[in-house]
Amino acid sequence: MSFDVKKIREDFPILQREIYNKPLVYFDNAATTQKPRQVIEAMEHVYSRINSNIHRGVHFLSDRCTEEFERSREMVAGFINAAHSHEVIFTAGTTASINLAAFSFGETFVGEGDEIIVSAMEHHSNLVPWQMLCGRKKAKLKIIPLNEKGELLVEEFEKLISARTKLVTLSHVSNAIGTRHPVEKVIELAHKKDIPVLIDGAQSIQHEVIDVQKMDADFFVFSGHKVYGPTGIGVFYGKEKWLEKMMPYQGGGEMISRVTLEKTSYNRLPFKFEAGTPNYVGAIGLAAALQYLRETGMENIIAYERELTDYGVSKLSEIDNLRLVGTPRERTSVLSFLIDDIHPYDAGMVIDKMGVAVRTGNHCAEPLMDFFKIRGTIRASVVFYNTKKEIDILCDAIEKVKQMFY
Amino acid sequence: MTIDQVQREIIEEFTLFDDWMDKYNHLIDLSKTLPEIDSKYKTEDNLIKGCQSKVWLHSEYSDGKVYFYADSDAIITKGIIAILIRVMSGRRPEELVNADLFFIDEIGLRENLSPTRANGLAAMVKQMKMYALAYQTKEQKKSK
User: Fold this and answer.
1) Residues of chain A with CATH 3.90.1150.10
2) From A175's CA, which of A105, A371, B23, B37 has a CA 20 to 30 Å away?
């Protein structure tokens, strides 16, 4: 199937608008992606045609809505190739998924003196919940170090593994600098010692084919809104063998099997982890997004995004006094950089006025900024609806920044 | 001049600029006029918490007036600080506590002050007023 970016862009209503009388150039995709009309329409369909609280309803609409919600779960399971759809738990997003893991896995398997391994370049979402867990349990957090290119030192990781290691938790792709980590290798090494691994897929789900069985991740989490779906929906995938043993995170309706005033027995998977009315509209919207990707073809998306990322790296590298922060061999989508000693905030203010949306700051990865001894970066993240022409516009905006602050 | 008079003066000055670039260039020029603050005031305590650019704010009270000294590591923020100091510094606490800073909207700096911009500026105005209130309360206690 051929890939026609012009046609793709027509599917995204927001890309048609102008900012400050200039066509919008949206490069803040690592923060959130824009939505194709297919997703917007799917959600409109729920609210205007079938909205009703799911499960247990005996009436027509409740049945229909439940059916579409559960079909969405199957869609997600298929998209990441989970062995069972009940291994897919709907949450509010990546952060909620990791907090679920930190609580449920932590309360079930982690005790005093045990160890959790994370990397030095995690988003705060994949760091703070584990710090909190370690604080509660008097457990220890061990950190995988990195090199100057912004790559993980896998051989150092091996040394961190001990008899007390209970879990390894690692991002698939760094949101701040775009490093694609060798998660397959990390999982293989951890599994040799029977240690489970959680992969934070917030920045990978939209850029590569995810096969949780092939990858052999024990847990895989991501947000809907970063993969062209709605906000407020996310996924917590876990292998059945772990989910069965883990205690629930939140109590309430839907997650129970039988309740008396004294005691409650829990529902089966996946409902055990979905207390309360789930975000079924979000789930249905997410399924529409995944369907859109499937129809566009992940292999087309991957090839195009690779070309675009390489083009971005080479164009930015040509700019005098521009420094890319992080120069990993394996990079996915993210271009993080500094222009001389111009404050990223100053640069961002000017780039914004050129109609270009980038992100500036520490990207919720303060330890990584500390490692590079910088106060933040300017970050452009490309996806399949961006174009080379847009990268050229970004380069022009950078020239404008230099003009103004030199 | 009263706070309101200075504000009107600033609004008048900004009418000269047609587009954002002129406005930003003006702020960049203003940033250069801001007197350097003593590095001993660039402390963690004086730091106004913002996500991106750092702002340090120090205040002194003498002869019934509040004087502000501030700095930032970002240039545009520094330019905005220069304007704020022009409006706020060297005034009696009660003027500051009751000040209505309408010039911010008028010259199109609202976007720079919204909490989402996270440049610590909204917090800076708030902090200036807090200092003023503290000095005012101290005065009132003394006179009792």
Assistant:
1) 5-30+297-405
2) A105
**Min Cα–Cα distance to chain A from B21, Å:** 8
Cβ-nearest to A349 among B54, B76, B118: B76
pTM above 0.90, yes or no: yes
Query: Has A65 been annotated as catalytic?
Result: no
Cα gap A139→A172, rounded to integer Å: 24
What are the strands of the beta sheet with B65-72, ordered from one edge? B47-48, B55-62, B65-72
Q: pLDDT for A233-248, tens place per residue? A: 999 999 999 999 999 9
Q: Is the pLDDT of residue A264 over 90?
A: no
Q: Does B25 touch chain A (CB under 8 A)?
A: yes
A355-384 pLDDT tens trace: 999 999 889 999 999 999 998 999 999 999
The two beta strands, A88-91 and A234-238, are antiparallel
**In chain B, what are the domain boundaries?**
3-143
Distance CA A193, CA A172 (A): 21
Residue A2 has pLDDT above 70, yes or no: no
CB contact under 8 A, B53 and A345: yes
Cβ–Cβ below 8 Å for A353 and B75 = no
Residues of chain A within CATH 3.40.640.10 domain(s) are 40-294
| 8 Å CB contact of B51 and A361 | yes
Architecture of domain A40-294: 3-Layer(aba) Sandwich (3.40)
Q: Which of B75, B77, B78, B121 has the most A C-beta neighbours within 10 Å, making it the best mutation to test the interface with A?
A: B75
- The nearest CA of chain A is from the CA of B100 a distance in Å of 26
Which chain B residue has the Cα nearest residue A343?
B74
CATH of domain B3-143: 3.90.1010.10
CA A80 distance to own-chain centroid: 13
Instruction: For residues B46-54, give the mean pLDDT.
Output: 76
Q: Per-residue b/e over A128-154, b at no fewer than 16 CB within 10 Å?
A: bbbeebbeebebeebbbebeeebbbee
Of B20, B28, B74, the CB nearest to A345: B74
**CATH fold of A5-30+297-405:** Aspartate Aminotransferase, domain 1 (3.90.1150)
